[in-house]
Design goal:
Helices cover 75% and strands 0% of the residues. It has one domain.
C-alpha cells in the first residue's frame, strides 16, 4: 500500500477540519474582534468556574458508568483506573491526529489491565452506546415537547436520523432474528479474522441483555452524565450573560455532539461551525462567536489537562501506539 493510501483517512480528517476552520474565520471576519472584546471584558468567571467543575464531575460520572459496564464482563476496575481510561480517551480523541481514536485507546488499556481483549473492546463499545442512548432520548423528548419553539429542518433531520440509527443498533444487538436479516453483509468483510472477531463482539454485547441491573444502572448514569455536560454548556452561556432557555440546550448540544462525529480531527472545526450555526439563531453573531471560543477553551483545556495526567501515568509510547493501530487492522 502506498504512503498516500495508508494515510488517506488522516489526510481527509485534516482537510475537513481545516476547511471548516477556514469557513468559520471567513464568516466571522468582521466579528472576531468584537467576540474577543466580549471575552476580555464581559465574562462572568464564577459561571465559568462552575462549568469547569461540572465538566470534571461529568467525567467522574462516566468513569463510574464504565465500572458498571465492565462488571458484566467480570472486569473489576477501581474508580481511579476507570477515570484514567476516560482521561486517556479524551486525550486521544481531541489531541492526537493519529488513526487511533479515544475508544480504541480505552479498549487497549482496559485489555492491558484485565487481559481480556474481546471483553474490553465490547465494554467500551457498549459504554459509548449508553451515552448515545441518553443523548438521543434527551434530544427527542426536547424536540417533541418544544417542537414549535425549536422548529428547524436541520435539527429535526439530525435528531430523528440519530434516533433511527439508535433504534437499529438496539434491535440489532438485542435480537438475533433481526441481526440475521443482515447476515449477507458479512461478505463485505474481507478478513476471516475480522469476521470471527466481530462475531465474538456481537455475542458479547448480546449477552448484556441478561444483566438488567448493571445495564439499568449504566443507563441512569448516562442520563446523569449527559445532563451535567449539557448544563456545563448552559453555564458557559450564562458566563456571557446570554439569555437562552435551559431546555433548548437539551436539543442543541446533542445535535452538536452528533455533527462532531463527522470525519475530522476530533471534531475540530466541524463542532465549532455547528455551535456558531445553531447558537447564531438565538444570539448576535459576535456573542455566538464568543460562546464558540469559550466552549473551545473549555474542551481543549480539559484535553491538555488529560495529556498532562496521561504523561504522569506513563505517557504515549510508540510501541503502545503501534499495538493500538494493530487492534484496528484486519491482520491485528
Amino acid at each position: 500500500m502506498s504512503a498516500l493510501g495508508k494515510h488517506k483517512g488522516k489526510i481527509l480528517r485534516f482537510a475537513i477540519s481545516f476547511a471548516a476552520i477556514g469557513v468559520i474565520v471567513y464568516v466571522m471576519r468582521d466579528k472576531i474582534h468584537d467576540s474577543m472584546a466580549i471575552l476580555r471584558h464581559e465574562v462572568l468567571w464564577g459561571w465559568f468556574a462552575l462549568a469547569a467543575a461540572g465538566y470534571f464531575a461529568g467525567l467522574a460520572i462516566l468513569a463510574v458508568r464504565l465500572q458498571w459496564v465492565f462488571r458484566v464482563q467480570n472486569i473489576h476496575m477501581s474508580f481511579r483506573e476507570s477515570f484514567h481510561l476516560g482521561v486517556v480517551g479524551l486525550f486521544y480523541n481531541l489531541m492526537l491526529p493519529s488513526a487511533v481514536g479515544g475508544d480504541v485507546a480505552k479498549a487497549f488499556y482496559a485489555y492491558k489491565y484485565s487481559g481480556k481483549k474481546i471483553e474490553s473492546a465490547t465494554s467500551i463499545l457498549l459504554d459509548r452506546l449508553m451515552g448515545f442512548v441518553a443523548l438521543i432520548i434527551m434530544a427527542v423528548i426536547g424536540l417533541v415537547y418544544f417542537s414549535k419553539e425549536a422548529s428547524n429542518a436541520y435539527i429535526d433531520y439530525a435528531v430523528y436520523g440519530a434516533l433511527g440509527v439508535l433504534l437499529f443498533c438496539i434491535a440489532f444487538f438485542s435480537s438475533r432474528r433481526f441481526a440475521r436479516l443482515f447476515k449477507g453483509f458479512a461478505r463485505l468483510i474481507p478478513s476471516e479474522k475480522w469476521k470471527a472477531r466481530l462475531a465474538e463482539i456481537y455475542h458479547a454485547i448480546y449477552g448484556y441483555r441478561h444483566h438488567h441491573g448493571p445495564v439499568l444502572m449504566a443507563v441512569l448514569l448516562s442520563f446523569a452524565g449527559q445532563a451535567l455536560f449539557i448544563s456545563v454548556n448552559y453555564w458557559l452561556t450564562l458566563s456571557l450573560s446570554a439569555g437562552i432557555d435551559y431546555w433548548k440546550f437539551f436539543i442543541l448540544i446533542p445535535v452538536i455532539s452528533i455533527v462532531s462525529m463527522a470525519p475530522s480531527i476530533g471534531g475540530l472545526g466541524v463542532r465549532e461551525g455547528c455551535i456558531l450555526l445553531l447558537f447564531g439563531r438565538y444570539l448576535p453573531p459576535e456573542r455566538a462567536g464568543a460562546l464558540m471560543i469559550l466552549m473551545f477553551i473549555m474542551t481543549y483545556a480539559f484535553s491538555i489537562g488529560a495529556g498532562i495526567w496521561y504523561a504522569f501515568r506513563g505517557g504515549l509510547k510508540p510501541k503502545a501506539l503501534n499495538e493500538m493501530e494493530m487492534m484496528q487492522s484486519p491482520k491485528g
